[in-house]
Design a protein that fits this description.
Strand order of the largest sheet of chain B: 1-12-7-4-2-3
Helix content of chain B: 25-40%
Strand order of the largest sheet of chain A: 1-10-7-4-2-3
CATH topology of one domain in chain A: Rossmann fold
Distance between the termini of chain A: 48 Å
Number of helices of chain A: 23
Number of strands of chain B: 12
Bound molecules: iron/sulfur cluster
CATH superfamily of one domain in chain A: NagB/RpiA/CoA transferase-like
CATH architecture of chain B: 3-Layer(aba) Sandwich
Strand content of chain A: 5-15%
Shape of chain A: globular
Oligomer: heterodimer
Helix content of chain A: 40-55%
Organism (chain A): Streptomyces griseicoloratus
Largest sheet of chain B: 6 strands, parallel
Largest sheet of chain A: 6 strands, parallel
GO molecular function (chain A): 4 iron, 4 sulfur cluster binding; metal ion binding
CATH class of chain B: Alpha Beta
InterPro entries (chain A): 4Fe4S_Fe-S-bd (IPR017896), 4Fe4S_Fe_S_CS (IPR017900), FTHF_cligase-like_sf (IPR024185), Helical_ferredxn (IPR009051), LUD_dom (IPR003741), LutB/LldF (IPR004452), LutB_C (IPR024569), NagB/RpiA_transferase-like (IPR037171)
Keywords (chain A): 4Fe-4S, Electron transport, Iron, Iron-sulfur, Metal-binding, Repeat, Transport
CATH topology of chain B: Rossmann fold
Radius of gyration of chain A: 22 Å
Order of helices and strands of chain B: HHEHEEHEEEEHEHEEEE
CATH architecture of one domain in chain A: 3-Layer(aba) Sandwich
Largest interface: A-B, 95 and 74 residues
Protein name (chain A): Iron-sulfur cluster-binding protein
Structural class of chain A: alpha/beta
């Protein structure tokens, strides 16, 4: 993949380009609105959603509070079950560990199941440098990889592509990666899925090394859990002889029982399903079933910095369901790429500046990539108060002094852009007004006030955000 | 080059420093429901049936006596001529089929599994509220690859002993040391414009047989 997140323009510039791209906007609007309505239905089926959400939040908070203990426990349990545990303080270390493990098998290709963590560390590029080809096997990741593109959504990384574009990508590029697309391929989703099935099957059947992430790892048992839909995950987790899982240290949950909470929260929040088609759970290795060698790479890469921030650490509760993306009026218009990292949308706006710091213009502008409408907090299944963290991070950017102020000014241009396009906000507004009960009451926060009170900004919107917000909320 | 143990120490050290001043987190309150379904076996069974069907699994009810005939019909109906048989599958389940049987002794290669048309298994558990069957590689289920590669999976659920209403009821009954596969309908993707398409890499057809006495 030649695309990269590094050196991308800051959020305001990237977002402005995205807004001009009407195909992209159309694709995104259709997709996010579809999933939004379905999710609300799936959640409404459970009378105890609020209690499950609170339990999910509490389990994560308690786990994070004793993270060292749980990590040592998961290490012991995985090792006892026949696995090998590696620790990686940063992306380079993780990439080196994985590359060395693959090299030790003598293989030059690996099959991969979608994993945010490996995207975050740029694993595919590192493998490529070492002469190892990584095949993405999730349909959307395949679309992204064949299109030499970057993912734009956590759950549906090719959400920015419509069926016609996907057909063209398959037709033009599949042959370069293996089995070509069937002749006369149409743009019917079923035909496109069939083309992917045929293209990937030969790779699955011959694969010797699989690489994954994990949605959860259970400390007391050493069990890893991967939640998926297509079966490509099962292929990668089951058929290869060697399995390498790269997992962020915040993915640990203390007990087997805790899965009863997260397996109710995650599918309904992400794909709006009672349960996703396939979930695989495995503990170390099992004789005669699945990989003979299992390696778990525990990844820090900025997570401990995030953990040290008392307001910001709640971002580590995230279970990557992507519900916050689907309700975000800014994401809907700006698209996933504007966020410049593997983590787009509201969660990206609070996670990326904490994982990477706010030294670059892009990362410093991310906390401003929001109208603070609060819809993300409302849908978050682990109750991450994203607006609270955004405001907190804005304060930190401003505290960087002269440089910080310059970055802040760039970010305010993003705000201007947003306010110049009030239609971008109406969807979030409508949703917010229906959900007042769970809505944070402090809006508009100090961050917003700072924008509108700054007198020397030439590009302030005609109508102050506060007034506009009030008027639209009566 | 840093050694592996020093990376471990660095990460754990950073975690401890990050948490040095963190307040204690409260105990977890588990006041969510154990089940969302009335505690009545017939209601739970109907819900399982409905939810399996909602996610496009074929659902059939059968008596134990009629089971071999039903499995035979399903295999014929899907044109399956070769069937993978996991170790420990009750011998009479396939008595009503004239398909060629490939008994797995642990040595069938992925390519051999790929050339089979179907697999017939039991399961460890079924969860009504989510429309899920859980396989744990026990007798009559076999290793995970068996139910992954053939394009048709027929899964038999013993209603009397294997159906629970909810996830909180399911987890205590499963053994975390065994590899488990949770299956809720045939494989699917919504990656193209969020349009759901059944059947990508796993079996494109899932037939669940609920055996009632
Ligand atoms: S922040 Fe919350 S809503 Fe957003 S992806 Fe994470 S868990 Fe889901």
């Amino acid at each position: 993949m030649s695309g990269t997140f590094i050196g991308m323009p800051s959020f305001p510039e990237a977002a402005r380009d995205a807004v001009r791209d009407t195909t992209l906007r159309g694709n995104l609007r259709h997709a996010t609105h579809t999933i939004r309505a379905k999710r609300a239905g799936a959640v409404a089926e459970l009378d105890d959603w609020a209690q499950l959400r609170e339990a999910g939040k509490q389990i994560k908070d308690r786990t994070l509070r004793h993270l060292d203990t749980h990590l040592e426990q998961v290490e012991r349990a995985v090792t006892a079950a026949g696995g090998t545990v590696h620790w990686a303080a940063d992306a380079d270390e993780a990439n080196r560990i994985v590359t060395d493990l693959v090299k030790a098998t003598g293989e030059t290709e690996v099959v991969k199941v979608k994993s945010m963590a490996t995207q975050e560390i740029g694993l595919n590029a590192a493998l490529e440098e070492a002469g190892i080809r990584a095949y993405e096997t999730d349909l959307a990741e395949l679309i992204v990889q064949l299109g030499d593109d970057l993912p734009s959504h956590i759950l549906v990384p090719a959400i920015h592509r419509n069926r016609g574009e996907i057909r063209d990508i398959f037709r033009d590029n599949m042959a370069d990666w293996g089995r070509p697309a069937p002749d006369g391929l149409t743009d019917r989703p079923a035909d496109l899925a069939e083309a992917a099935r045929l293209h990937l099957r030969e790779k699955f059947l011959r694969a010797k090394v699989g690489i994954s992430g994990a949605n959860f790892m259970v400390a007391e048992t050493g069990t890893l859990v991967v939640v998926e839909s297509e079966g490509n995950g099962r292929m990668c987790l089951t058929l290869p002889e060697t399995l390498i899982s790269v997992v962020g240290i915040e993915k640990v949950v203390p007990t087997w029982r805790d899965l009863e909470v997260f397996l109710q929260l995650l599918p309904r929040s992400s794909t709006a399903e009672r349960m996703n088609p396939y979930t695989t759970m495995w503990t170390g290795t099992t004789d005669g079933d699945g990989p003979r060698a299992f390696h778990l790479v525990l990844l820090d890469n900025g997570r401990t910095d995030t953990l040290a921030d008392e307001v910001g650490r709640q971002a580590l509760r995230c279970i990557r369901c992507s519900a916050c993306l689907n309700v975000c009026p800014v994401y809907e218009r700006a698209g996933g790429h504007a966020y410049g990292s593997a983590y787009p949308g509201p969660i990206g706006a609070i996670l990326t500046p904490q994982l990477r710091g706010t030294a670059t213009e892009l990362d410093a502008s991310l906390p401003y990539a929001s109208s603070l409408c609060g819809a993300c907090y409302e849908v978050c299944p682990v109750a991450i108060d994203i607006p609270e963290v955004l405001v907190h991070l804005r304060e930190k950017v401003a505290d960087q002094g002269g440089r910080g102020h310059r970055l802040e000014r760039a970010a305010m241009r993003a705000a201007t852009w947003l306010l110049d396009h009030p239609a971008a906000l109406t969807a979030g507004e409508r949703l917010a007004s229906r959900t007042r009960k769970l809505h944070p009451r402090r809006l508009p926060g100090p961050g917003v006030r700072e924008w509108t009170n700054s007198r020397d900004l030439p590009e302030l919107p005609a109508e102050p955000f506060r007034d506009w917000w009030k008027k639209n909320h009566e | 080059m840093t050694s592996a143990s020093s990376a471990r120490d660095r990460v754990l050290g950073r975690v401890r420093r990050a948490l040095a001043d963190a307040p204690e987190a409260p105990e977890v309150t588990r006041d969510y429901l154990v089940s969302h379904t009335p505690d009545d076996p017939a209601t739970v069974l109907d819900l399982l049936h409905e939810n399996l069907a909602d996610y496009r699994a074929g659902v059939h009810r059968s008596t134990r006596q009629h089971l071999p005939a039903l499995i035979g019909e399903l295999l014929t109906g899907h044109g399956a001529r070769t069937v993978v048989v996991p170790p420990g599958l009750p011998g009479d389940w396939l008595a009503g089929s004239d398909a060629r049987l490939r008994h797995d002794d642990g040595h069938l290669t992925p390519a051999e599994l790929d050339s089979a048309d179907a697999v017939v298994t039991g399961c460890a558990l079924a969860v009504a509220e989510t429309g899920t069957v859980v396989l744990d590689a026990g007798p009559g289920q076999g290793r995970r690859a068996l139910t992954l590669i053939p394009d048709l999976h027929i899964c038999v659920v013993d209603v009397a002993g294997q159906v629970v209403a909810s996830l909180p009821q399911a987890l205590p009954r499963l053994d975390p040391t065994r590899p488990t596969t949770w299956i809720s309908g045939p494989s699917a993707t919504s990656d193209i414009e969020l349009d759901r398409v059944e059947g990508v890499h796993g079996p494109r057809t899932l037939e669940v047989v609920l055996v009632v006495e």
